[in-house]
Amino acid sequence: MRRLIITAALAAFAIGAPAVAQDTVAITGGRVLTGTSVIENGTVVMRGGRIVSVGTGAAPAGARIVDASGKTVSPGFVAVDSGLGTSEVSSVDGSDDQGNSANTISASFDVSYGLDPWSFTLPVARQGGITRAIVVPSHPGGSGGHNHADDSDFAGVGAGGLQSPGLFAGQASIIHLGQGTEILVKPRVAMVAPFGEAGAGVAGGARGATFTLFKESLAEVRLYARNKAAYDRAGLRDLSLSRADLEALIPVAEGRMPLIVTVNRAADILQVLRLGQEEGVRLILDGAAEGWLVADQIAAANVPVLLNPIMNLPDSFERRAARMENAAGLDAAGVVIAIKGNGGSIHRAKETRYNAGNAVSHGLSYASAIAAITTNPARIFGMAGDFGALAPGAAGDVVIWSGDPLEPLSIATAVFVNGIEQPMETRQTLLARRYMTGGTQASGMPVAYGN
To answer: Which residues constitute the signal peptide according to the record (predicted)?
Structure first.
């Protein structure tokens, strides 16, 4: 009987490892990038899934020693604006749980319910040093969590019902990339909404409509929050959002949940900053291709930015001033930045470190580049100290590199997530190994083709 290739791959990623390692592990002799400093010939000690010490001291007695001499040790990297664990093949609907277009489920769409810990994309991302990810719903104009769906696939207001699917794309979650059935770290960490050209398309065709729709939506949310009893007895005027969406937006309206706003044009960024101040909304800018033009205003508003530093082609009117020095300009102004991967940070999430290296080659300091893929993402999403740094109390997410992690030829030689060393196999390496010898049967055909 023929066996499918997928069976062998799944077996290689069999879930059964404990969620947290209890043994003490000491990584010694490496050049340690803590996320905020550099320690030569350092020692990183983990126990119970957490880092217990980082310094130059000797390994504790009884610890498992991992020799990193001549290598670099870093925190696990964080993929932001990612679709990891929610989309296998974006063009195959049944394997893509990252997007939603229902009339009555927009802001309430929660990507955490579609997470797949067996996803083939997770081991590939781990090979690039990714140990955590901020998973966002796909949405019009998205440059990170965006999948292959065309923006026209997302209907606008009035196309099948008021706010269909609505200005809000849904809620983001944080995951870890370690083996195990429970990869969700924290659900509902941010709301997502497109502005700029994409937001205009959803709202009816003009940027002004986007802002009006946003303000009206928050007004409805606040009205609902004050009058839930009246809503229950049908004593409140008709609202354009479903109850589920109204409930999901209450934390945004109250300033407790940040709003990830996809926006690129400098003029749009200024309008969004003003809107956030007027409405009391906590903002995270996504994209900000022209952010360097208004970097001082972004910094003054204390708004962080998720960006792809190699986005330098003016492929639309809202990205006319895109340039490779965007990350450096924002960082110099004091903006907290997080650097994204490519292609939706799913299959190409491992390229996050390459983008950070490109940013360094265009003026961003090395220390800022490392922070932009480790400590800054954790800080932006309210998890500072929990991951993204080699510091006592942080998660035991540690990567050992053959050389500088921002150099493309360097490879990860070991990856720990929550203190557990992860396998370095992927479906791709298994397939390569399986077929490179030409098969194992007398016929020369691979085993899978036997009877």
So the answer is: 1-21
Q: How confident is the model at residue 153 (pLDDT cuts 50, 70, 90)?
A: very low
Contact 75, 400 (CB under 8 A): no
Q: Report pLDDT digits (tens) over 160-180.
A: 444 554 789 999 999 999 999
Greatest CA separation for the chain? 78
Give bridge partners of residue 20 from the DSSP assignment. Answer: none
Q: Which residue has the tokens 């993929």?
A: 79
Q: Kindly state whether residues 46 and 86 are assigned to the same domain.
A: no
Same domain, residue pair 294 and 422: no
- Residue 180 in contact with residue 230, Cβ under 8 Å? no
270, 297 contact by CB (below 8 A): yes
Asked if 300 and 409 sit in the same domain, the reply is no
Same domain assignment for residues 3 and 91: no
> Which residues are within 8 A (CB) of 91 and not within 5 positions of it... i.e. 6 or more apart?
148
Mean pLDDT of 243-249: 96
Which of residues 385, 403, 420 is at a domain's end? 385
The per-residue pLDDT for 450 is 55
- Residue 408's domain comprises 1-76+388-451
pLDDT band with cut points at 50, 70 and 90 for residue 264: very high
* Cβ–Cβ under 8 Å, residues 25 and 416: yes
List the one residue out of 170, 150, 153, 151 whose CA is nearest residue 104.
170
Closest of 259, 255, 148 to residue 199, by C-alpha: 259
The H or E element spanning position 259 is strand 259-263
Which of 330, 359, 385 marks a domain boundary? 385
Total number of domains in the chain: 2
